Amino acid sequence: MAPNSIEVMWGPGFIGYTIATMLYGISFGQCVFYLRSFPQDPKKLRLFVMTVFLFDTINQFSITAIYWSILISCRRSMSLQCMTKISLQMPLGAFTTYWIVFFVQCFYASRVWIITGNNHWITGLICILTIASFVGGLIACSLGLYTRSPEALFTTKWTPMSSFTSALCDVVITGSIWLFMRPARTGNVRRESRSYISDMMWILINAGLFSCIVAISLTVLYMFQDGLIGQFYTAAPGAILGKSYMNSMLTVLNARKPIREREQLGYNLTELPTLPTIR
User: pTM score > 0.90 for this model?
Assistant: First the structure.
């Protein structure tokens, strides 16, 4: 197989696009579930969720347009430029991905601020890493837009630097949540509430772990593809990155419903009279 063949160049990205499409369907369902289940949430939060989902939708259409152009529009074209010059949809897809990551990490920073009791050091570190990751992503997008070359977008060192910083930010967020919500710190809370806090803690950790793994895989694949011409392995996790963060945030928000229902059910059960007290 030729080094610059379509299969090698765009095969990994198309695999990532397929997975991203499934994740977009999940995020769509989660967004509808959130809007229907939490009408009492502050309007700012609901507007924030809808804004992030709008960016996720633009990202999905951008990625779809990319592979439509490559695999359908350019299928019968023998022009090398058709395969090697990127359209505006590719920088747009990357741009919206980094915005989604930025939005979601800001969301987690606000949650960490509350969980840690307004800890300036931890929240400040998360904000610094979030901004650094976002700036690195914007630089990578600018290079891709300026050169109109996929190599500039998928092989620039700014992409793995941004992903590594994002993964490091996720580690700090996850570690902070575990540190401040672990049973040793919630021992003075009554047993039933402590169980709900533990459930929420593990949901937050697992949701953050998924996006962290995707970000780390992008960095690792960059190191693996370094020096290989026309092999864009980082396109696979790059297509999934924004969707993983979107689903992570929606999972955390929607997890409140079953936990609250269990807590409410527990209260109702404790209020039921025992048999000897019934007259």
Answer: no
